[in-house]
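Re-run requested by the PI after the first attempt was lost when the workstation crashed. Everything re-entered from the original request form. Ligand of interest: nicotinamide-adenine-dinucleotide.
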Amino acid sequence: MDTATAPLTEAELGARIEPLASLLRPGGPVVVLTGAGCSTESGIPAYRDAEGNWRGRAPVQGQEFAADPAARRRYWSRSILGWPYFSAAAPNAAHHALAALEHHGTVTTLITQNVDGLHQKAGSRAVTELHGSLHTVRCLHCTVRLSRDDIQKRLVADNPAYATARSTPAPDGDANTSEHVPEDFRVPHCEACGGVLKPDVVFFGDSVERAVVQHCMEAVANARLLLCVGTSLMVYSGFRFCRHAAESGVPIVALGMGRTRADEMLALKVEAPCGPALRMLADEIGAPGTTPI
Ligand SMILES: NC(=O)c1ccc[n+]([C@@H]2O[C@H](COP(=O)([O-])OP(=O)(O)OC[C@H]3O[C@@H](n4cnc5c(N)ncnc54)[C@H](O)[C@@H]3O)[C@@H](O)[C@H]2O)c1
Ligand SMILES: [Zn+2]
């Protein structure tokens, strides 16, 4: 059966969840690694489909963004349209269940590859944002940090004609709209020093800070279990924690729909949609309270 198209019955979901619940019942420390699949039920699309294939256009590369004014115009002229969708997204059952599992003491560290802040909105506290947050913008020159909401106000005031273009949401706060890059689009600059402003996220081609990776590696090595949720693990940045878990003798479990790069390394794979599956898991192991707050 194709899990991507045919919804599971409660009984089918229960049968898939039970082996995972058995692994989690003894308690923590459990490290969770989440990806874009955790937020698709909140309306933020993922990059890859269940086969691990790329679904849309190539995202901006970090070096290209820093060096090329046209790349920055392209980025911001789509981001002005993507931000209203992205910033309005609310946590779904998956985020709430993971927060409940943390309060229950089972999940001790949550590493997310997502940049949407939805785990914190749901109440998770032990969160490491591996790739930063789209809610903050940073000056590449003087390193001042600004709120993306404030930058949106500036973008809209400076580019009123572009703020209302027809679009649909795309991964990572991007939008699907015309491929044309407007020459007259006014890109925001740092008001303190005139420097280039960049979303405070790790773009493709950038690297994650060493101290952040180190912190996550230690948490993984000391865990009883690594649970990967809604991630294809195709990006090395997340996959490295699976490698480290395998080298440290920590069992790896994946929950999600589709192929992952770590399939050969998994102790258990649960093919199910994140929200319903995690809600049932939290209920099963006695960490309910996953209703939206
Ligand atoms: N929400 C966000 O912040 C966001 C969104 C898109 C991309 N990104 C970035 O892009 C990179 C993409 O890598 P990735 O591995 O996180 O994502 P990915 O797109 O490579 O993989 C997502 C996986 O989740 C599965 N999936 C989708 N919806 C699901 C659902 N409802 N339930 C269960 N599984 C589901 C897909 O089949 C796929 O296997 C990340 O590094 C991240 O920084 C972030
Ligand atoms: Zn500056």
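Saved to the shared folder this time. The longest strand covers residues 132-139.
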